[in-house]
Amino acid sequence: MASSSAPYFVCHLLLLLLMAVLGVIDIVASQSIINHLPGELDEVQLFYYFVESESSPEDELLCCGLPEAPVALPFQVLCQETEQELIVTKRQRQRGFDQLAGMASSSRPYSVSHFHLVVVMVLGTVLDKVASECIINNLPGFPGNLPFRLETGYVGVGELDEIQLFYYFIESERSPEDDPLVLWLTGGPGCSSFSGLVYEIGPLAFDINANYSNWSSTTVPTLKLNLYSWTKLANIIFLDSPVGTGFSYATNWQAYNTSDTLSMAANYHFLRKWFMGHPKFLKNPLYIAGDSYSGIPVPVLVQDITNGNEAGVEPSMNLKGYVLGNPATTLHDDYNARVPFSHRMALLSDQLYKSAETNCKGEFINIDPENVLCVNDMKVIHECLKYIMKSHVLEPWCEHRFSPTPTELDWYQSNDLFTEDHSIDIFLLSLPNQLQWCREYNLIPSYIWANDQNVQNALHIHKPCPNLPTVGEEVKRMYLNTDRR
């Protein structure tokens, strides 16, 4: 719209408001905020005035008046005429500005006698922050201030933001403006990204030696710095995904039923909104990374980002690649490969492995019960691997004597430390009686730390998360029982 026309439109608007004050016309819902635009990301907040027709409000047309905005915004305006919805393109919007300017500057007296008038005032631009974000300067268990920049927050995704994804964002300790940006997704599915932060690639770690001598469910474990953190060279977002993992939650139960494709669609939505709140990182090289089960969904997310970039979806992301550690591929192939892997690690003799390979024809999971030779070979393999620590074959296997209902698991199954019967309090009482240290015991501090109310307050958690585990078994059940298309 020509700038010279703008004052006339503003005068027309002020005249309408003056008429409303004097009682000449009625303004219905005189001021409100539109918080949700279908298909968008709520990044635009629109303020409007609505004036009903004085003749026949039920039958007259609805007219959208759009004065010149103070800033140029890349959004579409919806204008409804009777029951037909019209998407106003940039050219159509300009034409509408010109027509309304003509109405405002014309000597012909226009009133609200024959149409509804909605004047939309754009009061905001793309928001420069996500739903909630907080800078954390210190944490319970860590002495003094953190020597790096830690941000935590929630980003709402889904049509109505019904999924609230929690994240930890740690800036690079070298050059945040230039170093790569990594989105880290821990596996499971259902493992909190906090495990990646303190047990794998993050700048913090639990001081196991200090904690073991003074472990208690009421004492906050001690944290120390990890000298080999990836944040020495990269900015990292640790995301609690899928919904229900860690501190991420949903506002309705239906949203907890998810799958690989649904979860990665939510993560793509997360990234788009996160970048809108952190635009300075859009130019940084982006890598999607994860381990274990993330080997399955991470490539899906990478493909979603690629498709979005090619389709011109904003914001465009500077995707450079993805990183996977001990990734899952297909559950059958991963488990089936454990037999040849065990042979290469000298856990199975050449004779036994060759016999099983011949008799089972390379199939070690779905065994034909009528194949007696294969069944017998697999029984021997089971006995050989039953007491092998799957996470690290050189470390001792630990029988959880503290469990009131110990369960013997097959060699290809997972044995999570804490289930409904594995209370952390029972375990802590049994620690003095353990004859040897086990890798899984290192997980105990995370259970205590993350469930401490002071910790959750420091992290600005939206609501308490009781019994927060490192691995969400309920999330895993709901996840795997859905259709993973």
Automatic annotation (TrEMBL):
Q: Which organism is it from?
A: Rhamnella rubrinervis
| Family, per entry | Belongs to the peptidase S10 family.
Keywords attached to this entry: Signal
GO BP terms: proteolysis; secondary metabolic process
Domain of life, source organism: Eukaryota
User: What SUPFAM superfamilies does UniProt report for this protein, alphabetically?
Assistant: alpha/beta-Hydrolases
The UniProt GO MF terms for this protein read: acyltransferase activity, transferring groups other than amino-acyl groups; serine-type carboxypeptidase activity
Q: Which residues form the signal peptide?
A: 1-30
- What's the protein here called? Serine carboxypeptidase-like 18
